[in-house]
């Protein structure tokens, strides 16, 4: 078990925003026939599987909080999507590594039979008084070159790819791959959880950032490849349910609080769901 670290985070309990970006498929005709919304949903799936965030109530920047990162592991997920009537199946993997040097590495990949590797994200960094402290975040989407965001801690800013304006670091900022691990590392260290609690972080992509908010709902029994597991249900709180994706995540205490299920639901009924198949602890 990783030794707990003492850090602080900057919550913004009322901020809610849409996550993910749409990436158009390109290439041969087989790929062009895939619905554009499939790439939007799959993109969001990877962003949160190895992405999420929050704390109950306001706190000032610099306030300490105890986090307890999970041990290193490789996680495998089954992916099923229903997009515009097209049922698609695939798989996702998460490689999470942390050690006694106070560093971490997180790599996420989603693939389907039709596209091969569809999405690949990577976050590397360490820990500070705010919890996880990314140094770099790279994202690669289907048939596109990797894009990178750099957390320049000496200059006190996040630098984005292209012409994006740098973001001034306030403390506690995460990237789209690290944010879920920040959440589960926080709840792993809490003696009790209260339904209704909210957590919000500023989350950086490769072009910019925005606050993400999740709320703790309840405890449920979730069927997985490891059998039925008790898991806490966290939900993204959309400001506009008619236009914003609903994101639901289940974290299992018996499995180091790793995410055992993730579901992305669009207002039109489209969805993508990821279910844990197995965990290989390192």
Layout of helices and strands, plus pairs?
Elements: E1 5-7, H1 29-32, H2 36-49, E2 65-67, E3 73-83, E4 86-98, E5 103-112, E6 116-128, E7 131-141, E8 147-152, E9 157-159, E10 167-168, E11 174-175, H3 179-188, E12 198-204, E13 209-224, E14 227-236, E15 246-251, E16 259-265, E17 271-281
Parallel strand pairs: 11-12
Antiparallel strand pairs: 1-2, 3-4, 3-17, 4-5, 5-6, 6-7, 7-8, 8-9, 9-10, 12-13, 13-14, 14-15, 15-16, 16-17
Task: Give a verbal description of the structure.
There is one protein chain. The chain has 3 helices and 17 strands. Helix content is 10%, strand content 48%. The protein has one domain. The strands form 2 sheets. It has a 15-stranded mixed β-sheet, with helices on one face. A hairpin with a 7-residue loop joins strand 9 and strand 10. The N terminus is likely disordered. By secondary structure, it is mainly β. It is globular, with a radius of gyration of 18 Å.
